[in-house]
Specification:
Structural class: alpha/beta
Radius of gyration: 20 Å
Distance between the termini: 37 Å
Strand order of the largest sheet: 2-1-3-4-5-11
Shape: globular
Strand content: 15-25%
Order of helices and strands: HEHEHEHEEHEHEHEHEEHEEHH
C-alpha cells in the first residue's frame, strides 16, 4: 500500500521529522526535546488531509495564524490510505519526540492513539478535536456544538427551498456527524413542518471513505437532487466537495461545512451556488491551544465552542445570501433563541 504521509516544515529538525513520519518501521530514540530553540507545534491531519477545503483546512488556518502571530514553527503530518491505529500512534509519537508542543490530532479518530501516547509524554500537551472520550492532565479536548450551527442551516434551507425538499449528506454514520443531521433536520422542521429532508450517509464505520471520496458525495447529491431536493447540506469533509459540485451543476443551493466554503479557492468555480456554510472555529481552537502552551498555561480538559461564543455559526460571505433579508432575520432569531435557551437543539436524530 502506498504511503502518502507528507510533512511540511521549516528547518533542519523539520527535515528529520519528515523522515521519521514517513518511515514504515523501526523506533527512534526516546528523546522528548528538540535541539531547536524555536518553539515548534504539530498538526496530525484527519482523513482527507490538508486540501479538503473543509475540516483539515480549518485546522491548518489556525496553524498558519500561530506561525504568523506567535512565531512558532509548524509541522504537519498527513494520514495514510487505509491506516490503522498503529499508524496514528507512530505519527503522534514521532511528532512528540521531536519536541513539538502541542501535538494536535485533527479529528475524533485520533482518540485511541492519544490515549496511548499522551501518558508517555507528560510534558507535552496533546489536543484532540471533536472528542471528549480521552481525558488526561495533558490532553485538551477541543469540541463544538455542531448541532447549533446546523440548526441555523436548517432554518436557511427551509426558507430558500422552493420544492419543500432538502437533502442532508453525512460522510460516515458516527455520533459526531449525527449531531449535524439532528440540528439540521430540527431547524428545517421547526421552520417548515411540511418540509421533507432526504438523509443519506456515504459509508459506515470502520469504512471512513465517506470523508475522503468526492465521487461518493457527488453521486449521492445527484440522487437527492433527482429526488426533488433543491438545497443540499453535506457534512462529509473532502467528500462534501463532490456534493457541492453536483449541486452547483444543477443550479441549486449547496450548504458548506466547517470552513466558509464560499471562500475556499478550490471551490471557486462553484461558489455562486454555495448559499452559506456551517462554520466551526477549528482554526481559533487550534490557535488558542498553541497560545496557551506558549503562555505557560496549557489548556486541558474540555474546551467547548458553541453559538454563544461564536464557536459555531453560519457564514454570510455570499452576496446573494446577504440579500435574503427574510432568511437572515429568521436565522438571527433562531440564533438568539438558542443562546437564550428558548430552543434546545437535539444532538441525535
Amino acid at each position: 500500500m502506498r504511503r502518502i504521509t507528507r510533512i511540511a516544515t521549516v528547518g533542519v529538525a523539520s527535515a528529520a521529522l519528515a523522515l521519521s513520519a514517513t518511515a514504515c518501521g523501526g523506533k527512534k530514540s526516546s528523546d522528548t526535546a528538540s535541539d531547536n530553540k524555536e518553539a515548534s507545534v504539530a498538526l496530525a491531519y484527519d482523513v482527507g488531509g490538508r486540501g479538503d477545503q473543509s475540516f483539515n483546512d480549518a485546522a491548518y488556518a489556525g496553524l498558519q495564524l500561530a506561525e504568523k502571530d506567535l512565531k512558532v514553527k509548524g509541522a504537519e503530518a498527513e494520514p495514510t490510505d487505509g491506516e490503522g491505529e498503529a499508524d496514528k500512534v507512530q505519527r503522534l509519537t514521532e511528532l512528540a519526540r521531536k519536541g513539538n508542543n502541542p501535538v494536535i490530532g485533527v479529528g475524533f479518530a485520533y482518540a485511541p492513539a492519544i490515549k496511548k501516547v499522551a501518558p508517555k509524554f507528560p510534558n507535552t500537551t496533546f489536543g484532540i478535536i471533536d472528542d471528549t472520550s480521552v481525558t488526561d492532565k495533558n490532553v485538551a479536548n477541543l469540541v463544538f456544538n455542531e448541532e447549533q450551527g446546523s440548526y441555523l442551516a436548517g432554518v436557511a434551507a427551509a426558507k430558500v427551498s422552493k420544492t419543500g425538499t432538502v437533502g442532508f449528506i453525512g460522510g460516515v454514520e458516527v455520533p459526531l456527524i449525527k449531531k449535524f443531521e439532528a440540528g439540521f433536520v430540527q431547524g428545517v422542521k421547526d421552520t417548515n413542518p411540511n418540509a421533507k429532508v432526504l438523509t443519506q450517509y456515504l459509508t459506515q464505520p470502520p469504512n471512513f471513505d465517506g470523508f475522503s471520496k468526492p465521487d461518493l458525495g457527488k453521486a449521492t447529491a445527484q440522487g437527492q437532487l433527482d429526488g426533488g431536493a433543491d438545497v443540499v447540506y453535506a457534512a462529509a469533509g473532502l467528500a462534501g466537495t463532490g456534493a457541492i459540485e453536483a449541486t452547483a451543476a444543477k443550479g441549486k443551493w449547496a450548504i458548506g461545512v466547517d470552513s466558509d466554503q464560499y471562500n475556499q479557492a478550490g471551490l471557486s468555480k462553484y461558489k455562486d451556488h454555495i448559499l452559506t456554510s456551517v462554520t466551526k472555529q477549528v482554526s481559533q481552537s487550534v490557535f488558542n491551544l498553541i497560545k496557551s502552551v506558549q503562555d505557560g498555561k496549557p489548556q486541558t480538559g474540555e474546551i467547548r465552542y458553541g453559538l454563544d461564543k461564536d464557536g459555531v455559526g453560519l457564514a454570510d460571505s455570499n452576496p446573494e445570501y446577504k440579500k435574503m433579508t427574510d432568511v437572515i432575520a429568521a436565522v438571527e432569531k433562531a440564533k438568539a433563541d438558542i443562546i437564550a435557551k428558548k430552543i434546545t437543539v437535539k444532538t441525535a436524530p
